[in-house]
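Check my protein:
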Amino acid sequence: MSHGSKVLFYVQHLLGVGHVFRAMRIVAGLVGSGFDVELIYGGQRLQNFQSHDAKVHFLPSLNSARGDFSQLVTADGTVADDRYRDNRRDRVLEILATCRPDIVITEAFPFGRRQMHFELLPLMDAVQSMDRKPRVFSSIRDILQEGNKPSKDWQTVELINRYFDGVLVHGDRNLVELAATFPFTAEIAKQIHYTGIVTPPRDQDTAAPQERYDVVVSAGGGLLGRELIFAAAEARKSSPFKDARWCILTGPYMAAEDRKRLEKYDMEIHQFIPDLHRVLKTAQLSISLTGYNTVADIMAAGCRAIVAPQWNKKETEQLRRAELLSKLGLVEMLAHDEKTPSALSAAIDRVMSAPPPDWSMIRQDGAAHTARILHQSLTGDQSMQVSS
């Protein structure tokens, strides 16, 4: 039941899809707790996008050019010119004026999305000038991309202090604190709220019989992870699950030739399964990368997991997450050079002989707790017992 408070949530994905699916879970939590939500969606439309009863404003699409974040392209692949950007900016400002929200949330910004400053900074200035100024929050994952120049991180601090009332860190501080990947956390400490991991709702049914698999292999959006998928397909022959039912999730962006190659293996192949955690609930083992949403699904399902983080000198998020979970005994981690059939087969033996993981040690009510934090920001109701 709505309590009349309105949230305007800005989401823009440039390469992967994880940001969108985490935002979708947060939107579901906000709507379920009584907020009226309007979503500004700026990336390519995803086939499995769900609005969860939020009103969605689809902007003219922008994405990075084949992973080149310095260049933004339109839906047909042409470089976005000034007119295209101005049109988007004006549309964002129109949505704000019409919506008149009580709360504005920006996903990733100002910790990321610097490419979108052409519309986000005007949005922030417009929010500041409203007669009834909304509360403003940044929504970020628990582990950020590292290696920024100090000047960029300091700019983030300046933007937080200029425009924002709070930073929603979607993680458990007992697992990892923001300071581990953001060097100036002390300067914004008063604005930080840890929400817990944004896991999917727990009240959904388990998978139907035709969706039940013993082993689920997944590669997130599919741009990364092909080595792991093919290693898993080969490892099946020498694993304890050689006669079991396997499913491979390629993601929407896996190359067509790689999907074709997978057809020679006796496994079910899907691009995507909605509500992956339902399928994992009845699985004996998950084999995956270590993206935020995949790990959240594994947590919610409580299953055994082998993770192979994708990382390089600039992108260390998955590696940090995998190392943290491995130290807690919650996953079996494979290094870069271990994405081979033999190494994976040995990892399967190890993880299946170990005790089941106790995922309950990590706070997992991120969507619901986000709603509580936002409600308290409007009411000042200390009885909500919102903790950080």
